Amino acid sequence: DDLYRIARGVDYGWIIDKDQSFAVRSERIGVHDFTSMDVSRVVGQAAIDSYQEAYRTRLKVDLDEPDVEIYALVRDDEFVLGVNTTGRSLHKRGYRVYEHPAALKPTIASAMLEIAEWPDGEGLIDPMCGGATIPIEAAFKAYNIPPNHLRRDFAFLRLKCFAKEEFEEIRENLLAEAKTCCSLKIFGMEKYAHHLRGGIRNAEKADVLRAIKFIQGDATIPEDYPKETLTHVVVNPPYGIRMIPSGSPKKLYVGLVKALKKVVQIGTLVLISGAYKRFEEAASECSLEITETRMVSHGDLRAKIYKCKI
Ligand SMILES: C[S@@+](CC[C@H](N)C(=O)[O-])C[C@H]1O[C@@H](n2cnc3c(N)ncnc32)[C@H](O)[C@@H]1O
Question: Considering only CA atoms, which residue is closest to atom 14 of ligand 1?
Fold first, then answer.
């Protein structure tokens, strides 16, 4: 009754237009004698009744592809009503024409670059770049390009209160502020040609191919690295047996750290791995100082981001 009363008291006219459809998505946390489906049903009915009374129109419900998504959260004795302004998750940037089998979420790649505190102009490498997520996100930062610039499907664009022309203007202004050139000091290295080709295709789609130098090489062989001065390494090495031909993540991590110690005189390494024990053993064996760690969820996996001093 409380949920209906509160949701019925809300004016939906400023977010939903008369000819638009809507759906309620609910989440329930805590112990209650109703389900989240009950919450959706009650809030949905309240929205229909409120709209009908205020605007003499019965709103259409579309559970599969609604124009507007209302979000209802019941957490213990709290009730939060909101509207989805994002739509698809923000990690879906729109540049992945090549799907690497162990791709990193671009949002995590971007956070790793922040952790690395990489200033544009200094040499940055991802020596196991796969589909090039890290170099692409680095190029967005270097060029000052909004990372979701390819997306046109934000949910807020369908809200009645939102002026689409204003969005286009803001978007154009932001893109106009992007730099047209930056120092070519972002490197993506990868051992396998098919992944490297995929990474190049992704960078092309993201419109930052000009900012990244791609190299085919082995991250455990110092001679394969570019000759330019490198100060920052941001990398997502394989975690599991399936992706590692030698079958041992520790051996690969030791090889990587030893090579980095030869190639980077003084610098910062930011690495993500789900095989934490193996990486920590490798770091200790190579006297690599870990200065910061944080846990992140990457899909179903729990992974750790390490910041290290080289
Ligand atoms: C977890 S994936 C990286 C995925 C990438 N971050 C992305 O978002 O697409 C690890 C990559 O390391 C590559 N790799 C494995 N051993 C390598 C080595 N010794 N040198 C360079 N690359 C290697 C694999 O081929 C794979 O593409």
Answer: 128
